[in-house]
Amino acid sequence: MRLFHQAWRDNDLQAFAIALGIALAAMIVFYLVRFVAARVLAALSKRTDTALDDIASRVIARTRLWLLVPLAANIGASALDLHDRLSNALSLVALIGLVIQAGLWATHFITLWLEGKTAARGAADGETLTALSLLGFAARVAVWAIVLLVALDQMGFNITALVAGLGVGGVAVALAVQNILGDLFASLSIVLDKPFVVGDFIVVDQLRGTVERVGVKTTRLRSLDGELLVFSNADLLKSRIRNFKRMNDRRIAFAVGVPHETAPEKVAAIPVMLREAVEANARTRFDRAHFKEFGDSALVFEVVYFVLDPDFNTYMDIQQAINFTILERLRDEGIAIARPTRTLHLVPAPV
Fold first, then answer.
1. pLDDT at 4 over 90
2. How far apart are CA 340 and CA 257, in angstroms?
3. Residues above pLDDT 90, as percent of the chain
4. What are the φ and ψ backbone dihedral angles of 57, each rounded to 5 degrees?
5. DSSP string of 216-267?
6. What is the pLDDT of residues 109-168, one digit of tens each?
7. Whole-angstrom Cα distance, residue 260 to residue 62?
8. Dihedral sign, CA of 310, 312, 313, 315?
9. Distances from the Cα of 130 to the Cα of 60, 194, 221, 230, 233, angstroms
10. Of 16, 126, 190, 223, which cross-links 197 as Cys (Cβ 3.0–4.6 Å)?
11. Measured distance CA(166)–CA(180) in Å, rounded
């Protein structure tokens, strides 16, 4: 307060009026520069194919003018006779405001750049989406760490000693938050090793769903029933994960049963019918069809084939078509489909 009292005593009202006018003029200039630069870059972006000018215009449009108020005040204070300590304090506040604004510019640029990359890749490129999400988080953390260090350095703190102290304290913090760090490193492992990416359909134990987001601590799946499944990254990597999206093809095995009373020559012809039913579809690869066993109530035939598309709905459409074909062929040959039956033999009681 003594410094402000001294400034009031050393300057007259005219000097304060001039300083206020300079500060207001500086704010008007800042506003006009932001407005004109954003408009010019927006017009330029419509004439070019690159996305950088569009991102730059949007970043400049998000300039926070209130962070430039200390800079305008510092410019206006040049018309006043101030104590060195007060002048240095105004310069420090103005510099910190500029550093924070630079951090906001960098953060907006990173966010908009990643949004553009994500839109360009599309939802199908889950591997890139997973990497970009974690890259964006790491970049934003790095930006604000630099902003903090620069601000502390300008405030007179010994950054070297501070970083060394943070290194020692970081060990203690790491022990206290080892579960969180475990999830963080697990998320990095997911990005680097890629057991799954956004868009993959995976099964974890008895839970299954499509990966929607791989975060720093958790991974989120959308189940077939619609609910959101949230897994800790560390626990997820400890589990056995079945990734159905990475299937090249799908192996299918199913059985067909006919009654025991079926004539032997018709039984011998059934494997050929089954093979023809499978091979009638171009998206299948036949493996085998055999008379497998004498069941309790049927003669059992086993068919194995591969669907050349991992999509589940495609498999069900093909299996349905095969079933229709088998049903039609068996009826044409007069062969019935076996039903569960049980025969009871009644033995007369001894007299």
1. no
2. 10
3. 23
4. -65, -40
5. SSEEEEE-TTS-EEEEEHHHHHHS-EEESTT-SSEEEEEEEEE-TTS-HHHH
6. 888 887 777 776 555 555 566 666 767 777 888 888 888 888 887 777 777 766 666 665
7. 80
8. positive
9. 28, 9, 13, 16, 13
10. 126
11. 18
Q: Which domains does the chain have, with CATH numbers?
A: 1-121 (no CATH), 123-245 (2.30.30.60), 250-332 (3.30.70.100)
Cβ pair 212, 242 in contact under 8 A: no
**Hey, which residues does 251 pair with through a beta bridge?**
306
Indicate the pTM of the whole model. Answer: 0.49
- pLDDT number for residue 296: 84
Mean pLDDT value across the chain = 82
**Tokens representing residue 55 in the block:** 């991102």
What is the Cα–Cα distance from 98 to 65, expressed in whole angstroms?
Answer: 10
User: How far from the centroid of its chain's Cα atoms is residue 123's Cα?
Assistant: 10
The CA angle 21-26-29, to the nearest 5 degrees, is 125
Which residues lie across from 302 on neighbouring strands?
A: 255, 290
Q: Where are the alpha helices (DSSP H) in the chain?
A: 2-10, 13-45, 52-61, 69-76, 84-121, 126-154, 159-176, 178-193, 233-238, 264-279, 312-332
At residue 274, the pLDDT reads 95
Measured CA to CA in angstroms, residue 309 lies from 7, 243, 283 at distances of: 80, 15, 7
